[in-house]
Amino acid sequence: MIEAQDIRYSYQNKIEALKGISLTIQDGEFVAIMGQNGAGKSTLVKHFNGLLKPSQGKVLVDGVETTKSSVAALARNVGFVFQNPDHQLFSETVEEEIAFALKNFGFKSEVIEDRVTWALNLLSLTQYRKTSPFLLSGGERKRVALASVLAWDPKTLILDEPTIGQDHDQKEKLRQFIMQMQTQKKTVVTVTHDVEFVAECNPRVVLMKDGKIVADGVGKEILTNPALLELSSIVLPQIAQVFTKLAPLGFPKDVIDIYEAKAIILKAKESKQGR
Amino acid sequence: MAIIETKNLTYTYPGATKPSIVDVSIKVEKGEFVLITGPSGCGKTTLCRCFNGLVPHFYQGELKGDISVSGIDTLKHHTYEMAKHVGLVFQNPENQLFALSIEKDVAFGLENMGVPREEMRRKVDWALNQTGIYDIRERSPHEISGGQQQRVAIASVLAMEPKVIVLDEPTSFLDPLSAEKIFDVIHKLNREQGITVILVEHRLDLTAKYANHLIVMDQGMVRFEGDPKKILSSEETRLIGVGIPKATLLYQMLRKDGLNLGDSTPLSSEELADQLLEALTPE
User: Fold this and answer.
1) Are residues A221 and A184 in the same domain?
2) Best to test chain A binding among B37, B45, B203 (most A CBs inside 10 Å)
3) pTM here?
4) The complex's ipTM?
């Protein structure tokens, strides 16, 4: 469980990036943190693995205050995948990159071999096992960074903009993987601008603006509230855009799922024909 | 005459075992808005690097086939010569900005070309106005938002008055509203100034509606090229992992279930909503 208790954080240039955030994330939850550029999203999640320590207030990870624990100790339980993979990658081959943390955590070599193979396969990287990460495309490097964290199977996973540069199939795989983590009671926190991805996953959504939380609730409710989204520089998902315009037909506005959309429209068609 | 034409273009990065683009033959006409998409690692970025000669002059490696951009063979001309013809805008604007003020950043390319002061002033002001950042021109590019930074990057290439602007996922670091504003700027430049736009994007939900020419790449090859409405309504396109806009998908699902909304495949929520209103509004 992650608990932020009224935390504030100022960078060295005195800009206050977090202005009193209180948030509790239970084990097994999937939370998307959304909001405009500079709202403090990345600053907030960097507190969850102790990379940043609050200037005021407390952050507790499984009951332990992050100021009383090292980043190295926290990392075993809280895996962090950065927005820009180039801040994370440094090894000569993809395989070594993924094995690096596993070696540091002292896993046996057979286990490392198994975990590396598993992670490569999960993220469609097997063909690049012996390739330098720097020869890969932006989207592929992003997946190497993700694989290197998933490999050690952390209890909590923090993903900063995981869908950047990812095609539709890779996003779908990521979605399925996150769902699978939830069944294992693992926690996933993602910072993202990708409204379509969030609409497909329908997680809990925490909306931030200017260092504060402005909304916290079910994805479907928040992503279909135009006033709230505009406040945070987010646009409605495409299905919700369509349904907003269909209001004259008496349709509900809170639709983000394509199958639900289809069912509502086909029902309306039948009732029109039945008349 | 086509503004960009490639014939059997094949390129291999130094040290790579297989080519990143294979036998690419495309033709882009002046004034088109071209969208290039395809699974990650399909060669989109590499192809863009060919348009201004970064491939092969900067990246080295082996390039085979023919390429001409605004009548110039990029193999025989250096990247700095191409800068007058093709402007490149990257994913992360931070990598592109370095000057102390926005204005200086935008003027940098022109200074290098030795453009006279008066003319430079005029071109820089025009580029700042086109991208909506004239009022903040004296600020540092490092104290503005990501969306504004990307506008500076676009203004910087625009000041050179290129005939073609190539943008490689220019909004992936931006929030959706800032992204939409950037696409509006690009669309306006295309429509009003006749600048040819080549946009690389995965997120077709946001961008398909602007394009009149779509190129779908897969494993280094061009798989589909042509009318976006046709290509995005084909099953094959979906199967190679292209993210079809939700409005387009919903239209197809409804069609399969017997609700015919007309023959024009929608690429945006506006188009689909109009079709649905017409079909479902009681007489």
Assistant:
1) yes
2) B203
3) 0.87
4) 0.84
